[in-house]
From TrEMBL:
Organism: Schaedlerella arabinosiphila
Molecular function terms, GO-annotated: oxidoreductase activity
Pfam families in the record: TM1586_NiRdase (PF14512)
InterPro entries assigned: Nitroreductase-like, TM1586_NiRdase
Protein name: Nitroreductase
Domain Putative nitroreductase TM1586: 3-211
Length: 219
């Protein structure tokens, strides 16, 4: 499975089995995280056999069986949310390739606990990871014309990019973004309040994966 296939197969999964992550899987994930942190100046961490990401009520109602998670964190900066969203998208797809399931959580995690263990970094979310009780189901999406527009005749790469962007997880599944293209120039605007930066990064990664980074440039 490659990243494009993983993008089509990945769905939000909130409930997990008690199957632990093997040492080999942890090594693969830590290796990916290390490369990502060095390249993008982040401090993402994988925590295993740790159920402290959520409060008790959330664990009972939503996050059942979550014992492994990524802390999405880094030194505070104006673009931190977008960088974490962008890199988190790739990390979730890499986990999917390894046979795991994921769930990006931007609001209902234990902020106090994550702040305590993130070494002074700002935490923008956590990503639950493990073996899901199910593989999840596709989320309801908007139509391509609701989130994308191209000036002139729309090229195939732009169409593929929009289709991929609609597969990206966004806060509350709002898909509150608009991608515009003209020639090889592409812009994105995301209006989702405190989640706009993370959503922008998540959607950018997916658009690039679908469109091909060689076909355009962000403006």
């Amino acid at each position: 499975m490659d990243f494009k296939e993983a993008m089509r197969q990945r769905h939000m999964v909130r409930r997990y089995t008690d199957r632990p992550l093997s040492a080999e899987i942890v090594k693969e994930l830590d290796g990916y995280i290390g490369r990502m942190n060095r390249s993008y100046g982040l401090s993402v961490e994988l925590k295993t056999e740790d159920s402290s990401a959520f409060h008790a009520v959330i664990k009972l109602v939503l996050a059942k069986g979550v014992r492994n998670f990524f802390i999405m964190a880094g030194k505070d900066a104006p673009d931190l949310d977008e960088r974490l969203g962008y890199c988190g998208a790739g990390l979730m797809l890499y986990a999917q390739i390894l046979g795991l399931n994921t769930w990006w959580v931007g609001g209902t995690f234990s902020r106090k606990r994550m702040a305590e263990i993130s070494h002074g970094n700002r935490v923008v979310g956590v990503v639950a990871v493990g073996y899901g009780q199910t593989q999840g189901v596709p989320h309801k999406t908007k139509k391509p014309e609701q989130v994308g527009s191209y000036s002139g005749e729309e090229p195939e790469w732009f169409r593929r990019g929009i289709d991929a962007a609609l597969l990206a997880p966004t806060a509350l599944a709002k898909q509150a973004f608009m991608i515009k293209g003209s020639g090889k120039k592409v812009s994105i605007q995301c209006e989702n309040g405190i989640f706009s930066g993370v959503d922008t990064g998540l959607v950018k990664y997916h658009f690039e994966l679908g469109a091909g980074k060689e076909n355009f440039e962000w403006v």
